[in-house]
Amino acid sequence: MKSRHLLPVVTGLMLSACASPAHAEATVDAANPLMQASPLPLQYPPFDQIRNEHFQPALEAGMREQLAEIAAIVANPQAANFDNTVVAMEKSGQLLGRALTVFSNLNATNTNPEMQKIQQTVAPLLAAHRDAIFLNAALYQRVLAAAATDEAKSLDPESAQLLNRTLTQFRRAGAALGEAQKTRLRELNTQLSTLTTQFQQNLRQATKDAAVVVDDAARLDGFSASQITSAAEAAKARGLDGKWLITLQNTTLQPGLQQLKNRDLREKLYRASVGRAVSGATDNRPVVAEIVKLRAERAQLLGYPNHAAWVLEDETAGSTAAVNKMLAELTPPAVANAKREAADIQALIDARAKAAGRKTFKLEAWDWPYYAEQVRAQRYAFDDDAVRPYFEIGNVLEKGVFFAAEKLYGLHFKPRSDLPLYHPDTKVYEVTDRNGSLLGLFIADYYARDSKQGGAWMNSYVTQSQLFGLKPVVGNHLNVPKPSEGQPTLLSFDEVTTMFHEFGHALHGLFASAQYPSLSGTSVPRDFVEYPSQFNEMWASDPAVLANYARHWQTGAPLDPALVDKLLAAGRFNQGYETTEYLASAVLDQHWHQLAAGSTPNAAGVVAFEQAALKEAGLALGPVPPRYRSPYFAHVFSGGYAAGYYAYIWSDVLARDSESWMKAHGGLDRANGDFFRAKVLSRGRSTEVLSLFRAFYGAEPDPVPLLESRGLVPPGKTKSKAAAAVTP
Predict the structure, then answer these.
(1) Which domain holds residue 157?
(2) In a 10 Å sphere around its CB, with 0-12 CB exposed, 13-18 middle and 19+ buried, how is residue 121 labelled?
(3) Count of domains forming the chain
(4) Within 13 Å of residue 152, how many CA atoms lie on the same side as its CB?
(5) CB of 35 within 8 A of CB of 26?
(6) Which H or E element spans position 652?
(7) Are both 114 and 171 inside the same structural domain?
(8) Of 54, 302, 590, 624, which has the most beta carbons under 10 Å away?
């Protein structure tokens, strides 16, 4: 499992991406395309017209406009009711929502120094703007009055949910605090918005700076010819002609560690990765320490023992106790498996050293990916490079990802060459529904570049809502190295799985069918948002889907069935390691955010705190480092997953339950897909989300399929609840 839903974030009020003609309060600048609704299909952004100088004026105008709209709600002489207060709030901020959505998404996918300066400027303004709304005592009283009416008791379920969510937002934002406390809260929110922006920008620069320069191509032994060419072109792009450059991904472990034969280069690459953002101008340790300190103080001010308690109250997990229990239960079997895997790898290292007549060495973190791949090849007679020629990126997308969506949900995809692009490496597809109607637009953006943040994620440019008559425009983003001109993009199976994962998020957005934008699509708790995406991963290895897309890029020959068997059998290999490295980061996240105010370490204590936390949790394994260390843990210090990184495995329980349900009911079948769409994918947060899962699965979440899928319990020793589930 990898980080696959790193949402681009501009800290502040993240409003729905609604777009309609600007209100009279805002000055309409005809030369600024963000100041009015896009004339393109589905209000797709006019990327060819948007310039850096358009962002800040539109954002500032949007904030002014929304505050005027809020003032009008408060000043309304009519008695407060659901429509003139709660729905009116939902309708407010359309200009700001449009401008902020485009800016934050482009700042993640194709940034530049000027955009980063704008982000630094507007982040604290946006935080203050959010506070101006949710700390507005008169507005809060009006919402309370609307909730107390007889009308509120007879609202339809989705409207009742909107009312409940609005009240919850006010309460959690501190609306009930005294004025002195609100003043301090505003200060904390502004400081945190500045710090999380600083963390993000430090990390982006540190990751770029830490790229490993190689002077001799012989040291790249193990890389394919196309990878070596790509490294040469990456070096040339930075003015390093005659050299090779290995750029870094977000995670601790780098893809090259699996292939590079040169142990010294592997160590150099690993140390470059873990050494990011820990010194000089991009040192994130002081930033981490200050973020944790201020989050703890804010939680205390809001009446919570720590930041995690504040976050988890509004998640499906509900409490720190529930999350701690799950992590503690998963850790022993994961670590035990990882130690067995380490012993197998060490045995291989020793045997090869003995056969070569040289001294052996102790397994280190930079050795694990390389030798684990050797063990896997030995055990399963499987080489990951042997299947890459069958996973050409265009085939994977159109004959794999899209094919599965067509079979399950009746969707069809058509390239749109008439719409402007924000980068030439992107593509746009028109998505039509099962009845032939236009469902939405999908942007595919899969290649890495210096102007793009690391990781993989989905975002929305236009959020579906019946209130505004809007259909969705969504995008998927990966960081696959771009091959040289004329060469194919050949993926690892992990990258293939990532494409299916992110498209699960895209389907969640495309299938949205909500009245209100703030309840639409992926606007669900963090520990539920990964459920549809992790569920969608199952189709990457489904026999019918795999047979359709796994074709040799030159000959068109299908992947040999024997190799398919080896691929799938090898898929469960190294699960102890993968689960342990993930749990280590999830535990770090909880340890940081379960600190009470006054007990947080300073910058000099960040590394020691990490080590102590991992040791206490039983996760301090030298050759198995955390997937992210704090200075580059973007999920929790700039990406919206603070105290929520556990969500991936929490959601995976639901996903593997749903996979078992699908298999028990016939797999790749339209009736199954339509049932899942109706019960889960289309509903957003129109009701409490666990009830959506129960309506689909027919039972409470069951951890057994997850444990079995990761080899953490012996297969066949337990039985999941899928057989008792609801039939479509």
Answers:
(1) 33-203
(2) middle
(3) 3
(4) 20
(5) yes
(6) helix 647-664
(7) yes
(8) 624
List, edge to edge, every strand of the sheet that includes 438-447: 412-415, 427-432, 438-447, 473-480, 457-462
Residues 146 and 226 in one domain: no
- Whether 224 and 121 share a structural domain: no
pTM score, whole prediction: 0.89
Question: Do 481 and 408 share a structural domain?
Answer: yes
**CA dist., res. 62 & res. 217, Å (int):** 52
Q: Report how far residue 500's alpha carbon sits from residue 502's, in angstroms, rounded to the nearest whole number.
A: 6
Q: What is the pLDDT of residues 440-496, one digit of tens each?
A: 999 999 999 999 998 899 999 999 999 999 999 999 999 999 998 889 999 999 999
The answer to whether 199 touches 120, Cβ cutoff 8 Å, is no
pLDDT in tens, 162-220: 999 999 999 999 999 999 999 999 999 999 999 999 999 999 999 999 999 999 999 99
Query: Pairing mode, if any, of strands 412-415 and 244-246?
Result: unpaired
State yes or no: pLDDT of 228 exceeds 90: yes
At position 273, the amino acid (one-letter code) is S
For residues 427 and 462, state if they share a domain: yes
38: its two tokens? 């896009």
Reported as half-sphere exposure (CB side, CA atoms, 13 A), residue 273 has a value of: 27
- Note the pLDDT tens digit of each residue in 18-35: 333 233 344 457 799 999
What residues are annotated to the active site?
A: 502
Distance of CA 536 to the CA centre of its chain: 14
Q: Which residue among 509, 543, 558 closes a domain?
A: 558
Number of H helices, E strands in the chain: 28, 7
Same domain, 498 and 410: yes
Q: Report the CATH number that the domain containing residue 441 is assigned in CATH.
A: 1.10.1370.40
